[in-house]
Amino acid sequence: MNPENRGQETTGPVYAPVPLRTAWSVDLGNGLNGTFVHSNIDGTATFLLPEVRSAAAPTHPTAPAAAQTQYEERAIHLIKVLNACADALDKGEKELVNKGLQMICSLASDDGEPLHRLASLFADAMALRMVQPWQGVCRALGLQKTTPAPETAAARRQFAVMCPFLRIAGTAANYAIIKATQTKNNAVLHVVDLGGANPDQWLLLLRLFATTRPRAGAHDQILRLTIVNEEDEFLSGTAALLASEAARLHVGFQFHPVKLNINQLLSIEPLGVRTGEALVIVSTLQLHRLLADEFAEVAANPHDRKGKKQVHATMTRADALLRDLAGLSPKLMVVTEQEADHNGAEFTGRYRKALKYYGALLDALQESVPARGSAVERAGVERCLLLEEIRDIVACEGAQRRERHEPMLKWAARMDAAGFVPAVMSPDIVAQTGILAHILAGGSTAYRVSREEDGCLFIYRNDDPMFSVSTWRTV
């Protein structure tokens, strides 16, 4: 309702004294409270915080400094409300969560500033978590429907363009692959992609392979690529793209599709590894999805003297797969994962870490418009990719939660337990990757890479480590 209309009476006969606006206060705890104002004319409701007007209410032009101050105040309040909602959700205080979500929806929008969009994404996920127990309601409203795979794949490709984290990671992986295998006499370089890599990464690898392998250009030098992916269109399109480039480069090329999701890869047999190949295994944002499934491994002597079954250890499917892959004795394994800790059992801590991580991603997406994509494409990435991940982290528990991101410190322990040792990236690989990051950032320091003491490469946005790239070999 327009502010100039406040206090005006309605025209026409009035049969009962109906107030134009109804107001009631709401206490969200933690010292946070405000007032809901409901209009009986147009049915709208907004939430007013002390000395901060609702985002839905019109504002008068102010000086830039005042506008920035108002935005910062509203941002602080949004974060406080989000945190209060998460605390209430963790305690099962549903009415408090409901009021908090009403407040967030009145203050934030999915097409505003990054913080507003972040609040909208997390409000969606918290609302889904609250109604998850009512499966009938979720199904009737279509809340459990996931984004179709082609749309998710398109959003992932657009994310790689707008936020070059994965392009940087793929380049570092390719340099490491070539360096680890170019001195080998094997006629076949077999690269197994467990999923997640962009076809552009393999185009670059083909070109590097053609220029750096012994007797480059001869057809007896073969690059064999195995890709695990469940989409026919992706597999066929990638095969045609790479076969055409290999023919242009006069490089022998073989393509081996494995039509499976990483969750369905129950053994290493479908990978089709052959003896005599220079084997390289690449996993891009895939292994964390296997941490949800745990099982007890039975000892070699499954029964003790009393006939009771002995449990040797409990491991995840990720650990079991890593152990099987180590048994193949690859020349190199490259692992790219989110440098985040979203696998905690405690909900509130997991939520707070996710809020910080995805806040940085949304800021990065915002900065990429319009240089590397449009606002429409940015919105598609947030809706089809980031929202799905946030929903998984915030709304799901148990085996249903697949986005179990872990920091490199934990992945290093898993790799060590599986039988891998670090294959430290050389300084020239780090330098070349750093140059690419500088170019993709338009000459700024928004994206940079850093090699830690253990040889792992971290990709930063400003001061935040966002993704890690680590290289491994077997003893």
From TrEMBL:
Motif VHIID location, chain numbering: 189-193
Region (SAW) location: 395-473
Record motif LXXLL motif, residues: 287-291
GO cellular component: nucleus
InterPro entries: TF_GRAS
Pfam annotation, one family: GRAS
One Gene Ontology MF term: DNA-binding transcription factor activity
Statement: the UniProt record of this protein carries the keyword Ribonucleoprotein: no
Top-rank lineage group of the source organism: Eukaryota
Keyword Cell cycle attached: no
Gene Ontology biological process: regulation of DNA-templated transcription
Keywords, in A-Z order: Transcription, Transcription regulation
PANTHER family (UniProt xref): OSJNBA0084A10.13 PROTEIN-RELATED
Family: Belongs to the GRAS family.
Protein name: Uncharacterized protein
Organism the protein comes from: Hordeum vulgare subsp. vulgare (Domesticated barley)
Native organism taxonomy: Eukaryota, Viridiplantae, Streptophyta, Embryophyta, Tracheophyta
